[in-house]
Amino acid sequence: MFLKLSLISLLLFIVSTCKLDITQSNSNFIQRGNNFPIKIAFRDPILLEILCNSFQERGFIIQCFLKKKEEKQNYDFYIDSKIDTVSSDILKNISMSILTLTTGAFVSTSAKNTFSIKNKNMKLLIPSQGKIGLWAYLPPYMGFLATSFGSVLNTNRLPHNLYKYCVIEEPGKYRKTLEQSRDDYCEDYKEFLLDSYYKVDDKFYSILQIYLAKGNK
Predict the structure, then answer these.
(1) CA-to-CA distance for 207 and 29, rounded, in angstroms?
(2) Rg over CA atoms, the chain
(3) Which of 100, 111, 141, 198 could potentially form a cystine with 159 if both were Cys, beta carbons 3.0 to 4.6 Å apart?
């Protein structure tokens, strides 16, 4: 009976989470009501790339730039994000491996990611959750061991480390040799941001649509 339940759980798990996909929202295209560009400032270049590309794909006329502390810049919105409650997902990953009868190897990290969008009239916080990870099927018990050790050794891919060594500072020679290069950190960080952004992208589109409908007031 236990084996049967385990196999059913495994089948459901494979169907639902066979891979960690980043899926865009199915929202309808938002029509612009005006032709003036919306000026948006960021401090995070990766966040700038993701959101501005997304907004432009939806038909908005956007002018994006990095905010510089030493300069006075005019902008309609300032968008940022804050990573919090970081997790190596070790208990969840071990549970998943057990459900696959120790053949599944699961290594992932996750964190709460709160977006903020503000201008002179308002400030909104948009909470989300982001995750990045890998999985594979191995011989019995090997998947469980790979999950356990992989989760412990995967600290370099914790979201706050990805942000730090992509945006804030260059990883040192030690990290580059034993862990990964800055390009790799940025690639993982972008994946994390994409995963958290596409869960709440409708809220951003609604804010921009309302802003245009009011005629930049």
Answers:
(1) 14
(2) 21
(3) 111
